[in-house]
Amino acid sequence: MSTYSLPNQAPSTMTEYDSGGFDLRVNMGPPIMTSPIMPSTPNLLFDEVQKLNSLMTQGSTVVPPPQPPVPTPAPAHTSVPVTVTAGKPPSFEKPDRFKGKSSEVETFVDAIQDAVELQGNSLTTERSKCIYMSTFLENSPKQWYRGIKKSHPLLLESFPLFIKAFIDHFGDSNLAYNATGKLEKLTQTGSAAAYAARFRELLVYVNWTEESKINQFYKNLKPATKDLIATKKRSKRPTDFNKYVEFVIEYDNCVHERETERKEEKHGSSNVKSSSLQNPIPITPTSQLLFP
């Protein structure tokens, strides 16, 4: 058997090897690594060692690049409790004391309701509102309240029902009849606006049609205002009471303006006449005009 002998020395040229440094004439083995070039003198060797140490030192002390800042999460929304402090109730004139007169019931109730509302948080329960109202009762109304407190205590748990019971007991049983009489007697003495305000106060107690309201309202207007309204055809006048009141107030204002103008005109003419009497124009005789 023939044997293949390895060469005694490495080839002198690279033509016998491939570009990777392997010997193609033998079995595939590890690549032949080229040895580093050693310095030729001790000084050069020392310099290389110093450089190597310097590189190693720098490598061990390299500061890593700064990390990007971690975003801070937004604080969770927390509701801050708001403390509401009850302010001091506004100052106001207290209602007059009620002694049982039926004609004063509506006025008294209105004043009490306004006072309760202005008290704000001072009167937090229905019962406290009823007790507050009772402090303005005298004589028989006070006795009535004490009876309610003993025999019908649950009525004090509803302020509106307590008010209703009070009106039913002390109010005018013939309220509609009396209001009708007052409306028929009511006349315009000042402005139409003031007349209308009082007229509307009494209307809440009667059940009249729009036509009845208008006829009664027109009936007791001032003659001068009626005269001006008469210049407008009846078919052109408003048929709704509230609009009719606005229509009348506008005409009444025109009457008032004309009366003011008439007074100023009269006063102005009086001043002119008085001035002419105090400073008469001298009269020159005709003979002097012809023969100066």
TrEMBL record:
User: In this entry, which stretches build a coiled coil?
Assistant: none
Question: Which segments carry the region annotation Disordered?
Answer: 259-292
Ranges for the Ty3 transposon capsid-like protein domain?
94-263
Q: From start to end residue, where is composition biased (Polar residues)?
A: 269-292
Recorded hits in Pfam families, A to Z, give: Ty3_capsid
Q: What segments bear the compositional bias annotation Basic and acidic residues? A: 259-268
Superkingdom as given in the UniProt entry: Eukaryota
Name listed for the protein in its UniProt record: Ty3 transposon capsid-like protein domain-containing protein
The organism encoding this protein is: Collybiopsis confluens
